[in-house]
Predict the structure.
Amino acid sequence: MNYPPHESAEKHVTGEAVYIDDILVNERLLVGRVVYSPHAHARITSSDLSAARNVPGVRAVLSYKDIPGHNQMGPVVKDEPCLAEKEVFCIGQAMFLIAAETEAQCREAERLIRVEFEPLEAILTLEQAIEKKALLGPSTNIERGMVDEELRKSAHVLRGELRTGAQEHWYLESQVCLCMPGEGREINVFSSSQHPSETQALIAEVLNIPKNEVVAEVRRMGGGFGGKETQANHTACWAALLCNATHAPVKIRLFRDDDMIMTGKRHRFLSRYEIGFTNEGEINAASFELNSDGGMAIDLSFAIMERAMLHVDNAYYIPNLRVVGNVWKTNLPSNTAFRGFGGPQGMAVMETVIDRIARFLKKDAADIRRRNFYGTDARNTTHYGQQVENNRIPVIIRQLLASSEYEKRRRECNEFNEENEFLKKGLAITPVKFGISFTTTFLNQAGALVIIYKDGTILVNHGGTEMGQGLHSKMQQVAAAEFGVSLDRVKVNATNTAKVPNTSATAASAGADLNGMAIKNAADILKARIAEEVARIFTEEHPSAPSGPASVRFEHEQIFDSDHPDRKIPFSEAMPVLNQRQVSLSATGFYKTPDIGWDKRKGFGKPFHYFAFGMAVTEIVLDVLTGRHTIVRTDILHDVGNSLNPGIDLGQIEGGYIQGVGWCTTEEIKWDERGNLMTHSPDTYKIPSVQDIPKDFRTQLLEGVPNPNTIRQSKAVAEPPFMLSLSCWLAIKDAISAVADHKFEPEFSLPATNEVILLSIENLKQKLTAEHQTAREVAAVR
Ligand code: MTE
Ligand code: MOS
C-alpha cells in the first residue's frame, strides 16, 4: 500500500515536534502551580496566603476572590468552580494558584499557605451514592416494545450485574498551558486542548474579557484520548488567571502524579441486566440499568451516559429493550470523556450477556452472536428508532471467521485445554457497531479557512486538533486532492481560534468527517473563483473558441480546460497571475452533518450520520497459577469505508485495540477509604507495554465498502476499535472457564486483573471440589 506517513512522524521521532513545553519563551516566563484539596469533602474554615505571598520570587498567589470574572469552568452545566470557595468536593480540586520565578519558590509558597478544614462526610463508591440517592441529574430512559411482558414470556431469563472500571487517559504529554499577555487585555493561549474554542470561551469568562481578546492555539497534543476535551480548560484557565495577575508569560504543566490525582477518568459503571431468550439463544427482551460514577461535577457525564445507552445493543437486534441511565455524584474528580465515550461501558454489558447465554445453553458464543446480529432488510432498527443502514456485520463475520480460522482454532483450544492443566487457552470473537456523530446534534459542524499564497502554496486552517490521530495528515491529503496538487504544496496550520472560530471539540471520532468536508467546501469556493478567471484567460488567448469555467479541471499540478486539453497553466504559475487580476485567493468553508436529529427526551430519532463496524478474534493463553495471560493472536477486520490513509487507520485500529486491552485487563484505578487515588503513577498503574501486544497481530481493513455522503467516501476510525478489546476480555473468561471444563460459569468483572482472574479460578475450584464432595456422598449413600 502506498500512503503518506503521519505529517509529523519524522519530527516525532527526532524530537523536533514542538509541544507546549518546547515553545521558547523569554526569561520572564513564570512557573505556575496549582494547590489542591487534600480532602474528599470538607468546609474551608480559614485560609491565609500572606506568608506565601512574601516568598522571594513569588509573583502571585491567587484564590477564588482574585478571579475577575466567573468562578466557573463547567463545560455544559455551570457546576464546576475554577477555584474552590467555601467547600471542597474532592481530593485534587484546585484551591489556590501560585506563580513564581522557579518551581522551588512555588513549592516554598505552597508550604506556607495556611488552610483549615472541617472534614465532611464523603461519598466514594457507587454503592454509597446509590444508597444516598445522590444523583447528578434526572435518570434517563430509552424503551421500545413490551419489555416486562416479553421477559415473562421468555423461555429463559438471566439476571446479573457487571462492574466495569475507571481508566486513566495516560496521554504522554500531561495537561499543560502557556499564556502570554498581549497589549491591553489581550491574551495568547497555547493549550494542549481538544477544544480550543471552549478553552478560549472559558478563559474569557474567568477573566471577564470579551472573546475577541483571547486567542487559543493548538499545534499538537501529546495525546488527548478524551482527557483534553473539557479538562484541558482547567489548566488553561488557571494559567490565564496567573498571566493576567502578573502581566508575564506563565506556564502550568502538571506533574504526572498531580495530573492523575486532579483530572477525571473514564466513568466506572455498575450495570444490571435482565435478559430473556429462546432455547436457540435468540434474545427477545432485555432490561438494562446503567449506573455511572460522575464524580463531583457533571462535565460530560450525561452525554457519556447517553452514548452508553445508545450502544447497549452493540451489534444485536433486541425487539423489546429498556435501558435506564443514572449518573451518580461522588466526591472524586469529575469523570470525563475517554475514547468510546460510554460506548465501551454499554457494550461490555451486552457482550457479557451474549457470553452468558452461550455458556447457559452450552453453545459457542459465536453462534449466539450470529443469531442475534442486526439484519440487512429486517431486524435492522435500533431501540432508539434509527435504521442500521449499510450493515457490514454480515460480510465482516463471514470474512473474519474464515481468515482467522475460527472453527479450527476453537477445536485446537479445546484440545490444548484437555492436555494442559496449568495453561489454558481461551478464544472469543466480538463485534462493534458504533454510531458516528455527536449525539448533541448542533455540535456536528466544522469550519475551515483555506489560503492560497502567491507562490502557489496552500495553507489549510480548520477547526480540528491534532493529538496523534493523524487528522492533519488526512486534512492535508484532502486539500491536495481537491486542488489536484502534491502534498508538499499544502501545509496544515496550527489550530487557532482567530482563524477558524466557534468550533466543536475534536471528538466523537468525527474530526476528519467534519473538518474534511469544511475544507472541501472552502476548496470548492476557491476552485469556482479560479476556474472563472482561468477560463477568461484561456478565452482571451482563443477568442474564436471560448473556454467556460464548467470544463476547468485541477489535476496533476495543472489547471486545464478539459474540452481543450492543450489549454493549461501550472497551478503555481496561475496564482501570481490571478493575484494580479485581483482574484481573492482565500475562502472559508463550513459543514454541518445533514439529516440527523435526535429527541433526547423521547429517546428516539436518528442521532448518527452512519455506523462504523468491526470485529476481532482474540486468542489468549492463561497461566492458571499466576493469573497472567498472554495474547497469542488477534485478528481484526475493520470497516473504514474508503480509507483516507490506510497507514494511519491501521495505527488507530491497533492502538485503539491495545488501549482497550489495557482497560479490560491491567489498568485498575483504586482509591483508599479517604478518597486518595492510590494508583497515581506508572509504578502502580499498569498500562499496556510492548509485551502486552498480541504475539501475532493481524489487522485488516474491510475492502470495497465506500461510505456514502462523507469526505472521499471515508469513515471515522478513532474510537470504535477500542471496543474490539472486549474479545480479549472474553477470551480470558473462556480460558478461566476451561479450568473447570466449562461446567460452571466463572465470576468475572472488568478489568480482568491477575487478582480477579485468580479469585475467579479459586471460586471455580471450590465449586469443583463441592461437586466432587456431593458426588462422593451420593455414591456412599447408594
Ligand atoms: N489517537 C492518538 N494517537 N491520540 C489520541 O489522543 N484520541 C482518540 C482517537 N485516537 C487519540 C487518538 C479519541 S478519544 C478521539 S475522539 C479521536 O482520536 C479524535 O480524533 P478524530 O476525530 O480526528 O478521529
Ligand atoms: Mo474522544 S472520547 O470523543 O475525545
Summary: The mean pLDDT is 97. Residues 470 and 648 are 6 Å apart (CA to CA). Residues 511-541 form the longest helix (31 residues). DSSP finds 19 helices and 29 strands in the chain.
